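Quick check before the chapter quiz. The format below is the same one you will see on the exam, so make sure you can read both the input and the output lines.
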Amino acid sequence: MRYLVISDTHGRVDAAVQIWEKYSKDDPLDGILHLGDYAADAEKIARRTGAPVTAVSGNMDGASEVPDHRIWETPYGPILLTHGHRQSVKGGLSKLLYRTLELKCSAAIFGHTHIPCLEFADGVHLLNPGSLTRPLGGRPSFALLTLAEGVFRASILFRDPVPPARGGKLYDMLNQSDRA
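Here is the expected output.
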Protein backbone atom coordinates (compact mmCIF):
# COMPACT_ATOMS: atom_id res chain seq x y z
CA MET A 1 0.00 0.00 0.00
CA ARG A 2 1.32 3.45 -0.96
CA TYR A 3 -0.28 6.68 0.22
CA LEU A 4 0.21 10.40 -0.18
CA VAL A 5 0.04 11.97 3.29
CA ILE A 6 -0.88 15.65 3.63
CA SER A 7 -2.05 18.04 6.31
CA ASP A 8 -2.95 21.65 6.92
CA THR A 9 -3.96 22.61 3.38
CA HIS A 10 -6.13 25.45 4.75
CA GLY A 11 -8.36 25.80 1.70
CA ARG A 12 -5.65 25.50 -0.95
CA VAL A 13 -5.85 22.19 -2.79
CA ASP A 14 -3.93 22.81 -6.04
CA ALA A 15 -0.60 21.64 -4.60
CA ALA A 16 -2.12 18.38 -3.37
CA VAL A 17 -3.64 17.71 -6.78
CA GLN A 18 -0.31 18.41 -8.54
CA ILE A 19 1.61 16.15 -6.17
CA TRP A 20 -0.95 13.36 -6.57
CA GLU A 21 -0.62 13.59 -10.36
CA LYS A 22 3.19 13.59 -10.20
CA TYR A 23 3.64 10.71 -7.76
CA SER A 24 0.85 8.43 -8.94
CA LYS A 25 1.80 8.58 -12.62
CA ASP A 26 4.52 5.89 -12.78
CA ASP A 27 3.81 3.89 -9.62
CA PRO A 28 0.14 4.31 -8.68
CA LEU A 29 -0.73 5.42 -5.17
CA ASP A 30 -3.57 3.73 -3.30
CA GLY A 31 -4.98 6.91 -1.82
CA ILE A 32 -4.50 10.08 0.18
CA LEU A 33 -4.51 10.66 3.92
CA HIS A 34 -5.56 14.20 4.89
CA LEU A 35 -4.92 15.08 8.53
CA GLY A 36 -7.16 18.10 8.94
CA ASP A 37 -7.27 21.80 8.59
CA TYR A 38 -9.37 21.88 6.42
CA ALA A 39 -11.24 18.57 6.31
CA ALA A 40 -13.48 19.93 3.52
CA ASP A 41 -10.37 20.10 1.33
CA ALA A 42 -10.27 16.30 1.36
CA GLU A 43 -13.55 16.18 -0.55
CA LYS A 44 -12.30 18.72 -3.11
CA ILE A 45 -9.07 16.79 -3.59
CA ALA A 46 -10.99 13.53 -4.03
CA ARG A 47 -13.21 15.10 -6.70
CA ARG A 48 -10.28 16.57 -8.62
CA THR A 49 -8.01 13.51 -8.47
CA GLY A 50 -10.49 10.63 -8.34
CA ALA A 51 -8.41 9.28 -5.46
CA PRO A 52 -9.84 7.74 -2.32
CA VAL A 53 -9.16 10.22 0.50
CA THR A 54 -9.31 9.37 4.19
CA ALA A 55 -9.58 12.47 6.37
CA VAL A 56 -9.79 13.63 9.96
CA SER A 57 -10.84 17.07 11.15
CA GLY A 58 -8.57 19.60 12.81
CA ASN A 59 -8.87 22.55 15.15
CA MET A 60 -9.92 24.85 12.27
CA ASP A 61 -12.75 22.58 11.11
CA GLY A 62 -15.45 23.77 13.52
CA ALA A 63 -18.47 21.49 13.72
CA SER A 64 -17.30 19.23 10.91
CA GLU A 65 -18.96 15.85 10.51
CA VAL A 66 -15.52 14.41 9.78
CA PRO A 67 -14.21 12.63 12.91
CA ASP A 68 -11.25 14.12 14.78
CA HIS A 69 -9.45 10.78 14.74
CA ARG A 70 -9.66 7.37 13.11
CA ILE A 71 -8.10 4.00 13.74
CA TRP A 72 -6.95 2.94 10.28
CA GLU A 73 -6.58 -0.82 9.88
CA THR A 74 -3.60 -1.61 7.64
CA PRO A 75 -1.39 -4.63 6.84
CA TYR A 76 1.21 -3.03 9.14
CA GLY A 77 -1.30 -2.87 11.99
CA PRO A 78 -3.72 -0.27 13.34
CA ILE A 79 -2.62 3.33 12.81
CA LEU A 80 -4.02 6.37 14.62
CA LEU A 81 -4.92 9.20 12.24
CA THR A 82 -5.43 12.50 14.05
CA HIS A 83 -4.82 16.19 13.55
CA GLY A 84 -2.93 16.31 16.84
CA HIS A 85 -4.40 19.41 18.45
CA ARG A 86 -6.21 17.33 21.09
CA GLN A 87 -2.86 15.75 22.01
CA SER A 88 -1.14 19.18 22.20
CA VAL A 89 1.53 18.15 19.68
CA LYS A 90 2.86 21.71 19.46
CA GLY A 91 4.17 21.18 23.00
CA GLY A 92 5.70 17.76 22.37
CA LEU A 93 4.73 14.28 21.26
CA SER A 94 4.35 12.48 24.59
CA LYS A 95 0.53 12.82 24.78
CA LEU A 96 0.23 11.58 21.21
CA LEU A 97 2.52 8.65 21.95
CA TYR A 98 0.53 7.71 25.07
CA ARG A 99 -2.78 7.97 23.19
CA THR A 100 -1.39 5.79 20.39
CA LEU A 101 -0.29 3.14 22.88
CA GLU A 102 -3.60 3.40 24.77
CA LEU A 103 -5.48 2.68 21.53
CA LYS A 104 -3.09 -0.23 20.79
CA CYS A 105 -1.93 1.33 17.52
CA SER A 106 1.41 0.65 15.85
CA ALA A 107 1.81 4.21 14.54
CA ALA A 108 0.30 7.69 14.61
CA ILE A 109 0.03 10.06 11.68
CA PHE A 110 -0.79 13.65 12.57
CA GLY A 111 -0.57 17.31 11.53
CA HIS A 112 -1.23 20.62 13.33
CA THR A 113 2.36 21.81 13.81
CA HIS A 114 2.96 22.61 10.11
CA ILE A 115 6.45 21.12 10.66
CA PRO A 116 7.36 17.72 9.20
CA CYS A 117 8.61 15.03 11.55
CA LEU A 118 9.32 11.32 11.44
CA GLU A 119 10.19 9.62 14.73
CA PHE A 120 10.20 6.20 16.31
CA ALA A 121 9.57 6.01 20.06
CA ASP A 122 8.60 3.10 22.31
CA GLY A 123 7.96 0.90 19.28
CA VAL A 124 5.63 3.46 17.67
CA HIS A 125 6.17 5.34 14.41
CA LEU A 126 5.12 9.02 14.53
CA LEU A 127 4.71 10.82 11.21
CA ASN A 128 3.77 14.43 10.51
CA PRO A 129 3.91 15.43 6.81
CA GLY A 130 4.14 19.16 7.65
CA SER A 131 2.03 21.58 5.62
CA LEU A 132 1.70 21.79 1.86
CA THR A 133 0.51 25.39 1.88
CA ARG A 134 1.52 27.09 5.15
CA PRO A 135 4.79 25.58 6.39
CA LEU A 136 6.44 26.88 9.53
CA GLY A 137 10.17 27.42 9.34
CA GLY A 138 10.69 25.63 6.07
CA ARG A 139 9.39 24.62 2.70
CA PRO A 140 6.00 23.09 1.85
CA SER A 141 6.12 19.37 2.61
CA PHE A 142 4.21 16.10 2.37
CA ALA A 143 4.95 12.44 2.93
CA LEU A 144 4.81 9.25 0.94
CA LEU A 145 3.95 6.21 3.02
CA THR A 146 4.43 2.55 2.14
CA LEU A 147 2.79 -0.07 4.33
CA ALA A 148 2.96 -3.85 4.29
CA GLU A 149 3.05 -6.57 6.90
CA GLY A 150 5.94 -5.59 9.16
CA VAL A 151 6.78 -2.54 6.98
CA PHE A 152 6.19 1.14 7.80
CA ARG A 153 8.30 3.19 5.40
CA ALA A 154 7.75 6.94 5.21
CA SER A 155 9.58 9.65 3.33
CA ILE A 156 9.09 13.35 3.93
CA LEU A 157 9.41 15.26 0.68
CA PHE A 158 9.47 18.94 -0.11
CA ARG A 159 7.34 20.47 -2.81
CA ASP A 160 9.80 23.00 -4.18
CA PRO A 161 13.49 22.39 -4.72
CA VAL A 162 15.90 24.64 -2.85
CA PRO A 163 16.97 27.39 -5.24
CA PRO A 164 20.71 27.49 -5.87
CA ALA A 165 22.60 30.13 -3.90
CA ARG A 166 23.48 33.19 -5.95
CA GLY A 167 25.26 36.34 -5.11
CA GLY A 168 23.45 39.62 -5.16
CA LYS A 169 24.72 43.15 -5.76
CA LEU A 170 26.26 43.43 -2.28
CA TYR A 171 27.92 40.03 -2.66
CA ASP A 172 29.40 41.09 -6.01
CA MET A 173 30.62 44.43 -4.58
CA LEU A 174 32.29 42.70 -1.63
CA ASN A 175 33.97 40.19 -3.90
CA GLN A 176 35.19 42.94 -6.23
CA SER A 177 36.72 44.95 -3.39
CA ASP A 178 39.32 42.32 -2.59
CA ARG A 179 40.40 41.92 -6.22
CA ALA A 180 41.79 45.44 -6.70
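If your answer matched, good. The CA atoms of residues 2 and 146 lie 4 Å apart.
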